[in-house]
Write a structure and sequence with these properties.
This protein has 290 residues and is of the alpha/beta class. It has eight helices and seven strands. A seven-stranded parallel beta sheet has the order 3-2-1-4-5-6-7, with helices on both faces. α1 crosses α7, α3 runs parallel beside α4 and α4 packs parallel to α5. The two termini are 36 Å apart.
Length: 290
């Protein structure tokens, strides 16, 4: 069995696309779909073990992939990755800035060091990758960049550090979309809401309890799938999005549209799309509930 993508076969044949955070969760799924569509994928992440596991999966499925360990917060490491990709493949057609993370805590408890660490992980690292990919290849040759942010609309209580960083990535992307348009470089964002992935299992028990309360607050009354998020990314990288830049696709089931004046009810006629043949539900959603 292979990835059940909705896009045409070999859509990205001959293209080289970097996916940060490609060793797990959403990045793993995005990397699989791009590889299934013919791209030479380069997965980047801090864990060599996770990267090699995903690399082995993609190779087994017949895809082309390279794995490069890198801490996106370290400028020298990012530059080394870009140099390595260009030396080996001679081009960078696409960049998916997916790596990031956060922890749940009230804003008043966030230390300056903790705030800066999350911002560097969710904003600065992505900026470095964007700048280096642009300066070293895309300015002269064009390309497409997709930055993964989050459901930050109207603020993000308990995640002030990440909300600030993701909001910064949104406006950074909008700025780049204007500045880099003359070079044929498109820059867009995708904002996931509650997407069921193994990222759920990395949170504290208190945060996991909040995640389990999520579906009833969503107009579509469910979690999203990794495949639904990946499809938005693939579309923005594709030729069909040639006139789309500086925009954001929300993949969130309508979460920001819910209002206290409207009572949400169980949704009908909305079947989740699951195209990722290797998708595994997070342990949080499979374990017995008390």
């Amino acid at each position: 069995m292979s990835y059940q993508t909705v896009f045409r076969p070999q859509l990205f044949t001959g293209q080289v696309i970097i996916v940060t955070g490609g060793g797990s969760g959403l990045g793993r799924c995005i990397s699989h779909e791009l590889a299934a569509l013919g791209a030479q994928v380069v997965i980047v992440g801090r864990s060599e073990e996770k990267l090699q596991k995903v690399r082995a999966e993609i190779v087994e499925d017949g895809g082309k992939v390279e794995a490069l360990a890198c801490d996106i917060r370290d400028e020298a490491q990012v530059i080394a990755v870009i140099d390595s990709v260009l030396q080996r493949f001679g081009r960078i057609d696409g960049l998916v800035n997916n790596a990031g993370g956060q922890y749940r805590t009230a804003m008043k408890t966030i230390s300056t060091k903790g705030f800066e660490a999350v911002v560097r992980n969710n904003l600065t690292g992505g900026f470095i990758f964007m700048r280096e990919a642009y300066n070293r290849w895309m300015e002269a040759n064009g390309g497409a960049i997709v930055n993964i942010i989050a459901d930050i609309w109207h603020g993000w209580p308990d995640y002030a550090h990440s909300g600030a960083a993701r909001g910064g990535m949104l406006t950074l992307s909008e700025t780049a979309a204007c500045e880099w348009a003359a070079s044929g470089v498109r820059v867009n964002t995708v904002a996931p809401g509650g997407i069921a992935s193994n990222g759920f299992d990395t949170y504290t028990e208190e945060a996991k309890a909040k995640i389990l309360e999520y579906p009833p607050t969503v107009p579509l009354q469910r979690y999203g799938t990794e495949s639904e998020l990946s499809a938005a990314v693939v579309f923005l990288l594709s030729p069909a999005a040639a006139y789309i830049t500086g925009t954001c696709i929300r993949v969130d089931g309508g979460t920001p549209n819910a209002r206290g004046t409207w009572k949400l009810t169980p949704a009908r006629n909305n079947e989740a799309f699951n195209g990722f043949h290797r998708s595994e539900p997070p342990e949080l959603l499979t374990r017995p509930r008390p």
